[in-house]
Structure formats: C-alpha cells, structure tokens
Design brief:
By secondary structure, the protein is α+β, with helices and mostly antiparallel strands. The protein has a single domain, classed as 3-Layer(aba) Sandwich (Aminopeptidase), CATH 3.40.630.30. Helix content is 36%, strand content 33%. Strands 1-2-3-4-5-6-8-7 form an eight-stranded mixed β-sheet, sandwiched between helices. Helix 1 crosses helix 3.
Length: 181
C-alpha cells in the first residue's frame, strides 16, 4: 500500500508493526468507550495483540481481502480506516479514532480518500457503513459524508454479552459519489 498524504498533517499509512505500541496506547486509554461500538477493543490486552493484528491485516491486504490504513496526524497514529467484506461490487467501511483526535474532521477526510480508491480505482458500486443505534458520532460521519440511511437491521451485531444488537446501515452509491466530486 502506498501512503496517502491528505494534508500537511494528515496521512493514511500502511499497517506496520512499529506503530503497534502507539495504536495500543490509544485503545487502552479509551477501551471502555471504544468497546461499546467495537467489541475487538476488549481483545487488545497488550502491544503484542495489536502487533499480531497488524501482521494479520498485512496478510489479508496481500490476499486482496482487506484494505486498511493507519490514520496519522503529525506522524503519530490516530486511528484506522478500512474496507472489508469486499464482494459483488460493494464493501463495508470501518473506522475508529483515539479520543484526542475526534472532532477535527479526520475521519471525514480519510473517508473521502477511501471513497476515491473504492469508486475510482476499484470501480466498486457501493460502500456501506454499519453502526449501532447509540453510536451517534458514527451516524453523524455517515450523514455528513452524504451516505443514505438504508435500514435498521434487528439483532444484527454481536455483543460481548453473547446477545445481538440492532444495526443501522448507511450506504453511498458510486453514481452518487460521482455527482458529489
């Protein structure tokens, strides 16, 4: 993956192991909040867990099963953004940011770069963002980036307690993206 410099201080970089400690520190500092929306946050118990995930992601990227980048601000890891479950002309978008980096538009700028890759380079037809109903911030990202709210899916996302919670699915079509650029 080629690093993408979005602004003088914002970049999307390849998931490499030397960044694991900084990513783990962001997760550890905000684990309670992150795990409300992203159950994997509770599986990261030490830097080695994050390093193992980055190694796994590198393999998935090489196998064309995943596109994932670390969002950096002033050269420091701030979070991640990815495309996963790519099939039949569409893919799901995932993202997270550490607490100090929220509210500055970094996800929106990263999402716009991801859309360019997905719709231009890969010719995907549709991108989807899945959120839980209580994740107002993620829904705001989808809405402010012109994603359409498609549906509420009952009992769709597994919880740590072994139950399922509802999901709200947002999408953007390539044809709509073309009219927005």
């Amino acid at each position: 993956m080629e690093n993408l410099h979005l602004t003088d201080h914002l970049a999307l970089v390849a998931p490499i192991s030397p960044l694991a400690a900084d990513l783990y520190a962001l997760i550890a500092a905000d684990r309670v909040n992150l795990s409300r929306w992203l159950p994997w946050a509770n599986t990261m118990h030490e830097v080695a867990d994050e390093a193992a995930f980055l190694t796994y992601a590198q393999g998935q990227i090489a196998a064309h099963q995943l596109w994932l980048a670390i969002i950096t601000v002033n050269g420091k890891p701030a979070g991640m953004i990815d495309l996963h479950d790519k099939k039949d002309g569409h893919a799901d978008v995932g993202y997270w940011l550490g607490r100090p980096y929220r509210g500055h538009g970094y996800i929106s700028q990263s999402l716009q770069a991801l859309e360019k890759l997905a719709f231009n380079d890969w010719q995907l037809n549709k991108l989807q963002i899945l959120t839980v109903p209580d994740n107002i911030a993620s829904q705001a990202v989808a809405k402010s980036n012109h994603y359409h709210r498609d549906a509420r899916l009952p009992k769709h996302i597994p919880t740590l307690a072994g139950d399922y919670q509802d999901a709200i699915i947002f999408s953007k079509l390539r044809q709509d993206w073309l009219t927005q650029i």
